[in-house]
Structure formats: structure tokens, C-alpha cells
């Protein structure tokens, strides 16, 4: 794991890009926050791992081709881009970028 | 499964649960009422309800004016699922507490469910699938009828029958129930519907047609879904506890002993995946109180299931006085 950390921009290294190939998922912890990473057909998404409903682990959830993740506990679905849901909850998502073979997340 | 070991485990886990009291008791301040209801169910099945009268009074105090409850005790907008869980704990708890204030609260809850049912028999809650939501007022009404509560009796029976019919009419031909949005796998919802709603009819006098067949098909589907290792839904501890408990009750009422191995595999897996204290949502996850309440409830129900006393397990759903 690279130790790159650029606080000025808020970008933090999450993992090597080749650790998250299309169809794969990975759980990382940055600044004490569990973040679930998904690569859906080449598009990488990052979302707070704990469902805002009852803290179910989204890393074990069900993804769909529309870019959604459904919590394995009670089925609440969240848009991986925006964190929005039809349910009364909003998940936290993070911007991602890949540079030099490393996947970075924009943390607040 | 050594029943003596189960008893020791229950004692240990119950002591741990009590040490967490400030995190589930309404006497300590506002709480998540779904968690509170889970905790009250543990007290009921551990037969310690009389020691917690203040918790019940606090539950009455946070009942909304429409007779329902909110997901958070400090909120004022009622939702169906949590209201049914609270109402169920209240009517069952009041069997031993015998408080007029609690009886009045139960009647207000009955009013709430009669007021919120839809024309086609369903109840709706934004947080849950309609089928799952519907099973909870039906479950409350199961106990209302089992205990002979006289408040608006005819209306309760009619609403209950419509709710039951909505559930039966939506069973799939493979025996499971599904909800495309909330429960695509069907596991949790099927476990809920047969234990919390349908099977009670076989104890209450078989007033709805098709219940026995629906329960048998649902139980069969649950068995087909179990992994060889004993879990359901990709190692989901919550859903495995749901399925294990559901099969204990439903197969007992159906007098179907063939599914005992499935139940025992589920229970063994649950015990193998217990943390030092309590359970998490999945293996390796940190303990959370709600899952620990479910775990304790599963062990207490297994204890009843193992007893020679006929219908001991049915009493833990409240379908028999």
C-alpha cells in the first residue's frame, strides 16, 4: 500500500489500481472510515461501507448495471455516484481517480 | 446440540445484554425503537419482563397521538413496521404486567393499524417491502386475537384476514416471497412471512384458506436456500437467525420433523460465528446490540423447541396464551 497522502487536495491513496479489476470489490479503511470500493465494468466507485439505515456492510451488497448498490441487510439501494436513495437516507460517496497505477479517493 | 451448553451461553449473553442496558433502555433516554423492541423481546423470552415495568411505561410515553410509534422514540411521525413491533411487545408484555395504562396503549395501537391499512389488505412503510410491512400488523393482530382482546374485534378480524390474503396471494409458485427492490433473494421475507403472519392461523382456528400449503411450501423453499455450511443469504447472520427461528416454529406446527437437520445446521453455524460477546451482522464483524438480541432470542427459542412440553415454542411467538 503506498503511503501517499496529499492533505492539501484531500486525495488519499486507497490501493493499487490493479487490486480492483472490473467486477471486483475491495474494502479499505482511511482515516478510520471503512470505504467500499467497486469496479463496475471499468468504472470505479467508492462509498462509505456502512449503510446509513442500520449500518449493514455495503461491501457485501448487490451491485447493478445502473451503478447502484443494495444493502445486504434490508435491501436499501444507493446510487454509487451520488449516494442518493429512494429510501429516507443518504450515503456518503467519494470521488476517485487513478494516477500512476494508484487509486486515490477524495476525502473531505 | 448440548442443551446444558446452550443454557450456560444464554446466561452469559443475557448478563452481557443487561450490562448494555443504557444503550437499549428507554429509561436511559431516547432510543431507536426497533432496537428497544428487540430488547423487550429478549426480556419476554427470558421471563424477566416484570423487572422492567418502567421500560414499558416509557414505551407508552413515546407512543404518538395516532397510536403508532416512530423509528426514533423522540420523533412524532408514526411508521407501520416499528409500530407493529412495539405494539406486539406491549400486548405480550402486559400479559404479565397487567397494567391498565398499557391496555389502553394497546387499544390505541389497534386503532392505528385499522386506520392505516390499504384497500387491498397491505400496510406500507417506506423503510420496508410492502409484504414484510404487512406481516407485522398481521403478527400483532395474531396476538390480539390469541389473547381475546375485545377492542374493535370484528374490524380486527376483517383487517387481519385481508392482510393474510394479501400475503398468500403474493406467494411465488416456488414457495418463496420476493420483492424486487428490497428482497430479491427472497430469504428474509419468506422467513418473516411464514413465522410472523401465516402460521398463526393454524393455531388460531384455520380461518384463512391455503395457509397450511403456503407455509409448507415456504418452509421447503427456505430449506432449499440453505448453504451446506448452515448459513442463508451469503453468510448473513441476521437472515440465518430469521430462517432458523422460522423453521423451528413452522415445522413444529406443521409436525414436519424432516427439517430438523436444517435447523440444527443453521444453529451450529450461528454458534460458530458468535463473537466473544454477542453477534455482528456477518462473520468477523463487530458485535451490535440488535443482532445480539436476535441471537439471544434464537437460543431461547431453541431451548423451547427442544423441550418436551407441547407448543412451548409456539408460546414464544405469542400465538398461544
Describe the model.
- The complex is a heterodimer of chains A (108) and B (321).
- Chain A has 108 residues and is mainly beta.
- Chain A is built from no helices and eleven strands.
- Chain A has a four-stranded antiparallel β-sheet, with no helix packed on it. A four-stranded antiparallel β-sheet of chain A has the order 3-4-5-9, with no helix packed on it. In chain A, strands 6-7-8 form a three-stranded antiparallel β-sheet, with no helix packed on it.
- Chain B contains 14 helices and no strands.
- The model of chain B has no long low-confidence stretch (mean pLDDT 97).
- The interface between A and B is medium-sized, with 17 and 20 residues.
Entry summary:
The complex is a heterodimer of chains A (108) and B (321). Chain A is mostly beta strands. Chain A has strands spanning 5-6, 11-16, 25-30, 33-40, 43-48, 62-64, 68-70, 77-79, 93-94, 96-99, 102-106.
Share of β-strand residues of chain B: under 5%
Which stretches of chain B are poorly predicted, pLDDT < 50 over at least 5 residues? none
Q: Helix coverage percent of residues of chain B?
A: 55-70%
* Helix count from the secondary structure assignment of chain B: 14
- Placed side by side, the strands forming the largest sheet of chain A appear as 1-2-11-10
The global form of chain B is globular
The main β sheet of chain B shows up as: none
